[in-house]
Amino acid sequence: MIETEPPSNDLRACEDPDRLPLAGDELDLLSGLIDLAQASVVEAGCGSARLLRQLVRRHPKATGVGLEVDAVQHAKNLATPEARLCFVDAGAQSIPFPDAVFDLALMLKSLHHVPVVLMDAALVELARVVKPGGWLYVSEPIYGGALNEIVRLYNDEGVVRREAQAALDRALADGRSWQAASERRFAQAVHYRDFDDFAQRMLYPSFADHRITEDLLQRVREAYQPHQRADGARFVRPMHVRLLRRTG
């Protein structure tokens, strides 16, 4: 049986992110929880599908499907094909696959991007396509830490991150589709060469318009600058993983 951490308030769990264990590779964490050797995997909100690509490379008998609704990112994924991995233009709330076809569903920093009114439907839909006894691995950023203090100046995700955790709580309380299997908290190292690198990656993503004005850009720059060193700016991103198992 997988050990489960006791539940805790996600927004208070990382008042000091530096105290969380640093994880170099989240795939190692996932591999320690689930047998991925021959897994069929669907990732909702896959973005560039970095971890999913690593997974199918590491496990030659595993297969993957990456779902993405952002047209720009989906086009990039199609332009960079991967063996045993396909990409589909679809959201978590409407997955164009039959019932019970995947061993594992992934949501990596993506559940809080689902519109709040659709979060419950997304978890129901993921349950539909996962086999009984299969898994849902949800990795969500914790609302805390120095990097979050900068990002929330232009993209405050406090509400949607709380809603994502609340949706998972409701799915577990319902009990018809998911049961809790495990929880983990860790930190991921994040590095930016300089403010231009930060701005390119964080202020102007293809999937969102943060309405960056000159005044706001300057405020973000001023908040970032104290972290800049000769080798760039280094942060940790605190993360909360919840592993659910499909009932039935």
Q: What this model shows, in words?
A:
With 248 residues, this protein is an alpha/beta fold. It has one domain (17-147, 155-188, 238-246): Vaccinia Virus protein VP39 (Rossmann fold, 3-Layer(aba) Sandwich). 32% of the residues lie in helices and 26% in strands. It is built from 8 helices and 8 strands; from the N terminus they run H-E-H-E-H-E-E-H-E-H-H-E-H-H-E-E. The protein has helices at residues 26-33, 50-58, 71-79, 119-129, 146-151, 158-174, 195-203, 214-224, and strands spanning 40-44, 63-67, 85-88, 102-108, 130-141, 178-192, 228-229, 232-246. Strands 1, 2, 3, 4, 5, 6, 7 and 8 form an 8-stranded mixed β-sheet that branches. Helix 2 (50-58) links the parallel strand 1 (40-44) and strand 2. It is globular. The two termini are 17 Å apart. The model is unreliable at 1-14 (pLDDT under 50).
Distance, first to last CA = 17 Å
Largest sheet: 8 strands, mixed
What is the fourth-level CATH superfamily? Vaccinia Virus protein VP39
Poorly predicted regions are 1-14
What is the CATH architecture annotation?
Answer: 3-Layer(aba) Sandwich
Derived from helix and strand composition plus strand pairing, the structural class reads: alpha/beta
For the record, the count of structural domains works out to 1
How would you sum up the global shape? Answer: globular
CATH fold-level name: Rossmann fold
Order of helices and strands: HEHEHEEHEHHEHHEE
Percent of sequence in beta strands? 25-35%
Number of strands: 8
The percent of residues in helical segments reads 25-40%
Q: Total helix count?
A: 8
Cα Rg: 18 Å
Mean pLDDT: 92
